[in-house]
Amino acid sequence: MHSVQIRNQATKLRKNGKGIYDIAKALKLSPRTISSWCKDIVLREDIRNKIHQNGKLKARKAMLVYTEKLREERLSRIIVNKKEGMKMIAPLSSRDFLMVGLGLYWGEGYKYDNSELGFTNSNLNVIKFYLKWLKLLGVNKENLIFRLTINEVFRSKEKQIKQSWISGLKILENQFTATTFIKTNLKKADVSNLNTYFGILRVKVRKGSELRNKIMGALEHIISCL
After folding, report:
1. The whole model's pTM is what?
2. Domains of the chain: which residue ranges?
3. How far is CA 55 from CA 24, 51, 69, in A?
4. What is the pLDDT of residues 51-108, one digit of tens each?
5. What is d(CA 110, CA 143) in angstroms, rounded to the nearest whole number?
């Protein structure tokens, strides 16, 4: 049995705009007990609004805490997944490298009967891998020709974008042919986001028809195994 003083304290807190759960926590009682004591209290409109606003604020705070917890859990899972992925493969052998490169060329390389050994991508790391793969096949960087394709919106930034590729791939400016400009609607990119826009780079091998034929033969062999 609770004392009259405790009960009066609870009703007083309620009349001053405290929530049921806040009162229960302050007095170390159950919310059900506090609710039964305060059920007949008629609150002024300003007090009801105060309680309502406090409730909304607490709900928002609780949601922020909850979403942050979910975010941290998601990031932790990603780290664990990546570590598991790294364990799935040992250091890449030459054959592993060859097969990954064939897969890349199958997806992004020129496969039509134009006798060109060409590859197009917009990701610097993918292009880096491709150049290393070509070196494995006996192609040096000096035998490569590059063509940059960028959106017309970035025409004034052409030199800066090209320099990003030159620095990232350690290639020479005289290996580039004239830049191609295209007009497409950009939903996420604009002139201000140059740090994330690099256009598309085509890599062509000089006199690469024989190597292209070998690559196509390897891909046809893979297809025959399906």
Report:
1. 0.69
2. 94-224
3. 15, 6, 21
4. 777 777 777 777 777 778 888 999 999 999 999 998 888 788 889 999 999 999 999 9
5. 17
